[in-house]
Amino acid sequence: MNLDDELRSALRRREPSPDFTARVLARVSMAPVMAAQRPWFSRPATRWVAAMAATLLLAAGTLEYRHYQGERAKSQVLLAMHIAARKLNRAQKKVQMITHRSNS
Amino acid sequence: MKAAAWLMALGLMAGLASAQEVKWNYDKLAAKASDSVDVSLSGPLLRLATKFLSDDDEDEAKVKKLVGGLKGIYVKSFEFKKPGEYTPADLESFRAPLRGADWERIVGVHSTEDGETVEVYIKNEGKGIGGLAIIASEPKEVTLVNIVGPIDLDTLSKLGGHMGIPEVEVDKKK
């Protein structure tokens, strides 16, 4: 057999086996089943839900911390004003006492 | 170029704002104190606190109005276990920064009975008050108050009748 015959033999058209179509269709129908068999955490929908949940948790945490900071700052303002007012009143009371004494 | 000018202006404004805070060094007293109160609020934290003050509560609404235009609130109070833990020199060091032309002592009272001294200073700014400083001392307590920004002393003193503080009648005649 010369080279031409060898090539012709190698490249000649071959018909697929009779069950070829059935096998391909079987594989195609199995594909979704295989996808469903992937771990739940690697599914795109799960990833989206997880990302959204993480974002919501982060936002809620930030809001909660901001609220805590605000409440703490508010108590500090009230405490500071309480102390300032008390000291101012002490000074006023003493001035009033001195004025009262000097008038009587 | 414009951005640089803005940045410089902002920096200058920030510098001016911080320059209004009285520079007191509390380290010596803090080291000896048995108990202390430290309130230091400025900028965003003070604005945040204002947002959390209620308009419905009478006392909080008053405080909200009072602190609305302030730039800073600094209060330090030190309590000591026994008298003599601080010296007159310590108090003098707190008076020193208030000797500038901006500051004016409006009240200075001392009681030999209970050893209490209260000094009230205001910072004159334009037509109004641009700040308040109080140095109050008792044998076992020293309190320093510095309020930066326009403060209404009348309203502040009226808070004395609320928040659990007994009100003191003040002669309004000037």
Characterization of the model:
The complex is a heterodimer of chains A (104) and B (174). Chain A has three helices and no strands. Chain A is mostly helical and 104 residues long. Chain A has one domain (7-103). The longest helix of chain A has 60 residues, at 44-103. Chain A is rod-shaped and about 140 Å long. The model of chain A has no long low-confidence stretch (mean pLDDT 85). Chain B is α+β, with helices and mostly antiparallel strands. Chain B has one domain. Chain B is globular, with a radius of gyration of 18 Å. Chain B starts with a helix and ends in a 16-residue tail after the last helix. Mean pLDDT of chain B is 83; it is low at 10-19 and 164-174. Chains A and B meet through helix 3 of A and strand 1, helix 3, helix 4, strand 2 and strand 4 of B.
Summarize the structure.
The complex is a heterodimer of chains A (104) and B (174). Chain A has 104 residues and is mainly α. Chain A is built from three helices and no strands.
The count of helical stretches of chain B stands at 6
Number of domains of chain B: 1
Q: Tally of extended strands of chain B?
A: 6
Proportion of residues in β-strands of chain B: 25-35%
Q: What is the topology, as strand order, of the major beta sheet of chain B?
A: 1-2-6-5-4-3
How many domains make up the coordinates of chain A? Answer: 1
Biggest sheet character of chain A? none
